[in-house]
Design goal:
Layout: E1 10-13, E2 19-22, E3 42-44, H1 59-62
Antiparallel strand pairs: 1-2, 2-3
The structure holds FE2/S2 (inorganic) cluster.
Length: 68
């Protein structure tokens, strides 16, 4: 990762959309296996409809997800 990856992690909940994760954080699956991170900002699905979970694929728009 680049210099930006060394920044403190932030998590931003998009209105009716994914969680945007930025900064120095390692993502792992349910077994603790690291997930490949290809971008500085990672969008994690919170609607449950993504075909590429745990990442957001934009499906929240199609299902008109409304965040609690
Ligand atoms: S939040 Fe985007 S697909 Fe679920």
């Amino acid at each position: 990762m680049t210099d930006r990856a060394a920044q403190p992690a932030t998590i931003e909940a998009c209105p009716n959309g994914p969680l945007l994760v930025r900064g120095d954080v390692q993502l792992v699956d349910g077994d603790g296996t690291p997930l490949e991170r290809r971008r500085r900002t990672v969008a994690l699905c919170r609607c449950g409809a993504s075909a590429i979970a745990p990442f957001c694929d934009g499906s929240h728009k199609a299902i008109r997800f409304v965040a609690p």
